[in-house]
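Sequence design from tokenized structure. All designs in this work follow the same two-part layout: the structure record, then the generated sequence. An example of the structure record is given first.
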């Protein structure tokens, strides 16, 4: 970070990007721990275990995954063509409505309405990371990208710590109201201060009939998707990263969708315990991303750090699966110090393996590949979690689903170890019909 201060423009652009995102992530994290109690109390009053809430949460992740496979690559393409700022504004503005519903009422009907609206919100909000990564790549030089993504994810972790600290001590009745105010602040700040880093493509064919415009939009979207796919497939580095992240998300998406509900059912954790565990993860994440990663990346490279982070993730998930006492989840959470390095390292590897005009396309396409895992992983994990938490479990191992998920993370480690990030990256030679730089929308 010290080197950036020599370039005031880089610092200014990054501050105006990361400050509102920090507030947005903090507001989102404030609601995470209390949502488990709210949904469980509304759908299964008087019970610690609520299969209905776990199933709804898994269904939410699955539906979001289906649409993110299409939306994420398109949003990445649009950010290359029309600029990062408008897409970021749309993505972060969608969080206001679902939490407003829970602030108004926490009855069963409003909880179901929250899930419906939140699904729509998450479909667009899921693109924030790929647009932000593309924005940082626009601003930061190649030799600083690993540090840039590390600081981005470090602030993400810091927002989690602050959000969970607020949730730990703020009465649950006020959490949604405070988070809504913060959600509103973010797009207002970006509108006023965030600068655009991409020159929008000129609009053409304004006089075309609507039927031809619609056909042209579909054709250009198809060609753009083919081009993004060729960018990834023709690069050995990007292809290997895609496989590694696919299997990583296949394990971790199921874990993330059921973890808090599993802890509530297995150890009767509540909002306070959830916040404490998430704070432990967040504090370690801040140290590793803001201080450790920028220091060691020049020495060992992103590949070694990515492999270490994946190995730590596998142990992290396995410990949750084998947890035999309430203190074990706290110990497992300490592995978050290394786990969180997966994202900044993968962002840096993807960015370095992509040309300057394909940053959004590559990040968005790989995000779409990762989203495929949301189709099956949460549903499978939910079924296993409900089965082994019930009285009909085949054997006594409440976290058996987490043990299965750890094997998927081990497979991702295998692909990460095969990475050859030092290969020179040249823009792939692609057929002229596929290499479209025109906007998706005329």
């Amino acid at each position: 970070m010290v080197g950036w201060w020599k370039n005031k423009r880089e610092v200014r652009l990054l501050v105006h990007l990361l400050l509102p995102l920090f507030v947005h992530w903090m507001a989102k994290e404030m609601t995470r721990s209390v949502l488990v109690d709210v949904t469980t109390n509304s759908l299964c009053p008087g019970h610690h275990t609520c299969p209905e809430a776990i199933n709804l949460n898994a269904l939410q992740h699955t539906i979001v995954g289906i649409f993110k496979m299409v939306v994420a690559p398109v949003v990445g393409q649009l950010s290359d063509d029309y600029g990062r700022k408008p897409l970021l504004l749309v993505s972060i503005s969608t969080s206001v409505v679902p939490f407003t519903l829970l602030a108004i009422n926490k009855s069963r009907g409003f909880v179901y309405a929250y899930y419906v609206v939140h699904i729509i919100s998450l479909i667009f909000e899921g693109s924030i990371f790929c647009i932000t990564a593309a924005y940082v790549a626009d601003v930061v030089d190649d030799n600083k990208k690993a540090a840039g993504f590390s600081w981005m994810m470090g602030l993400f972790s810091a927002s989690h710590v602050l959000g969970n600290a607020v949730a730990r001590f703020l009465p649950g009745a006020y959490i949604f109201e405070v988070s809504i105010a913060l959600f509103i602040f973010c797009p207002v700040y970006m509108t006023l201060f965030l600068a655009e880093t991409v020159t929008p493509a000129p609009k053409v064919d304004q006089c075309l009939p609507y039927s031809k415009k619609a056909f042209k939009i579909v054709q250009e979207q198809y060609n753009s998707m083919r081009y993004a796919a060729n960018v990834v497939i023709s690069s050995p580095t990007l292809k290997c990263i895609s496989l590694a992240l696919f299997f990583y998300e296949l394990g971790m998406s199921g874990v993330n969708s059921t973890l808090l509900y599993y802890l509530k059912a297995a150890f009767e954790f509540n909002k306070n315990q959830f916040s404490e565990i998430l704070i432990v993860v967040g504090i370690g994440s801040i140290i590793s991303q803001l201080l450790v990663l920028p220091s060691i990346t020049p020495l060992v490279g992103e590949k070694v750090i990515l492999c270490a982070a994946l190995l730590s993730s596998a142990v992290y998930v396995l410990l949750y699966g084998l947890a035999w006492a309430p203190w074990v989840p706290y110990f497992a959470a300490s592995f978050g110090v290394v786990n969180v390095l997966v994202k900044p390292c993968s962002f840096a590897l993807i960015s370095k393996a992509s040309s300057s005009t394909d940053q959004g396309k590559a990040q968005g396409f790989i995000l779409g590949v990762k989203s495929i895992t949301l189709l099956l992983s949460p549903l499978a994990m939910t079924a296993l979690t409900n089965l082994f938490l019930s009285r009909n479990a085949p054997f006594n191992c409440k976290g058996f689903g987490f043990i299965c998920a750890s094997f998927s993370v081990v497979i991702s480690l295998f692909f990460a170890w095969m990475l050859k990030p030092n290969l020179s990256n040249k823009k792939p030679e692609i057929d002229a019909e596929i290499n479209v730089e025109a906007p998706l929308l005329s």
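The longest helix spans residues 271-322. We note this feature because it recurs in several other targets discussed in the main text.
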